[in-house]
Amino acid sequence: MVSSPHEAMHRIFQEYPELFTGVSQVLGLNFPPPVSATVLPTDLTESRPVERRVDTLLRFDTEDGRAFLLAVEAQGKKDPDKPGSWAYYLSYLYTKYQVPPLLLVVCQDRATAEWAARPVTIGPAEWPALTLRPLVVGPHNMPLITNAAEARKDLALATLAAITHAAEPEAGAILKAMSTALRDVPETIANPIVELIAQGLGKRPVAQQWRNLVAVDLSFYTSPMSEELRAEGEVRGEARGEARGEARGRAEDILLLLKLRDLAVSDEVRERITECTDPELLRAWLARILTATTAEEIFEEA
After folding, report:
1. Which position has the higher pLDDT, 111 or 41?
2. Which of 47, 123, 196, 228 has its CA 20 to 30 A from that of 279?
3. Are 142 and 160 in contact (CB under 8 A)?
4. pTM, whole model, 2 decimals?
5. Superkingdom of this entry's organism (predicted)?
6. How confident is the model at residue 10 (pLDDT cuts 50, 70, 90)?
7. Beta carbons within 8 Å of 160's beta carbon, 6+ residues apart
């Protein structure tokens, strides 16, 4: 399973194009409601050997007969080269499709979001030829959804909010609300959300909390992550079984050697040996039998 916050931050718009309507409303913008959305090729490479690839590209056709392109970029950190690339994307898209393009940048930290949101002028100071103005969403303006009922109202927006707040202190409460909200949701709807959030969390510590919530609250689902969790559980179970078997074997060896050395074994000593489940400790006791004068001496460290 791919575990990349970068993928989740833009791919969610491919899965749920209508999410842009909720995002634009959160940002206080009034775009006409779309009547259709089309995922377009993301390769913006020209015939020259210069490759430009936008993360996600959508075409929206609106109720009033207009259309616009939405280029979604996931940005994990500040990159001084990005504004030039973004300006290229927009001008190329306008030239190719003859439809007004819009750039949406998705971030997971406030510093990067604030940097990405700054207008960038291109051209001499006396007469800038272009001004780049991306829309930016991140932890600074996405809602903190910690209530399951609120999350159910717009699962796509709640998913994006969970991803953008992955590094925030409230992340745990957001994830708990999401897992609760998904309990009564059909599997075909819940599975993509479970996977997108897992991708969006990446390797952050809170990612394990999401895995635990999915294992408990959504154990009946068969998403790739759920199957992975169950497989991990089976492996851990097998490992524990092997460790217990190894410990029993070493305990039997210790008791046998004590008998061969004619060392008296009290019930207390026997119980301590047979109930020990630490193979390394049992190995140490086994080695001490060679020099011990009583059974109790094997428990004493040199």
Report:
1. 111
2. 228
3. yes
4. 0.65
5. Bacteria
6. confident
7. 9, 12, 19, 23, 106, 137, 142
DSSP 235: H
**pLDDT for the residue 58:** 94
Closest CA to 56 of 22, 14, 94, 28: 14
Amino acid at 124: P
111: left (phi over 0), alpha (psi -120 to 50) or beta: alpha
Mean pLDDT, the chain, as a whole number? Answer: 84
Q: Which two tokens stand for residue 146?
A: 């910690």
pLDDT tens string 186-209: 888 888 899 899 889 988 888 888
Beta strands at 120-122 and 130-132: parallel, antiparallel or unpaired? antiparallel
| Distance, CA of 134 to CA of 117 (rounded, Å) | 6
Which residues are registered as beta bridge partners of 256?
none
Structure tokens, 294 = 């009583």
Token readout for 133 is 């103005």
Q: How many other C-beta atoms lie within 10 A of the C-beta of residue 1?
A: 11
Strand-pair partners of 270: none
Joined tokens for residue 94: 């306008």
